[in-house]
Amino acid sequence: MTVVERLLRHDAWTTRTLLELSADLSDSALDREFDIGHHTLRRTFVHMVSNMECWCDLMCGWPQRKVNLESVHQDSIVGLAIRLGQVSQELLTLGIEVASQGREEEFFVDYLAKPPRKKPLGAGLLHIATHGMHHRAHCIYIMRQLGVQNLIEGDALSWERIYRGLEAWPEAH
Known about the structure:
The chain is mostly helical and 173 residues long.
């Protein structure tokens, strides 16, 4: 597994796990205002998933996807999890292709920037993972304030251990 694949798999798993831990929260809890980041847990999750969709579309050269939050409830925890599942698979496919073809330095056009700018694919993929980590820290803070139990730390070594199906890392001899 490449470093890019690890970053993207960890990013998706950690966000998905936080969404799952939020599944039993009421709408009022999801929309409760806090003095951090995007101010609510729901807005933070929506921002994270929307950002992944936006950057994926830019790097793949696709038109920006349209999400109708009112009609299909894509801002619900279930809807966000579905969107995350789709976009994380698209990003993983892109990341594996970019790494295997040595295209990390190839440019894509960020046509949302004014004026449009060329940016390297490798940096765009790294941006996705680090952006998610930043906002997951906000989510964990908000979830702790809301009394959510069994919160994960969200670190890469814990994810890797779980991904490998290990109870603990093997002892060195």
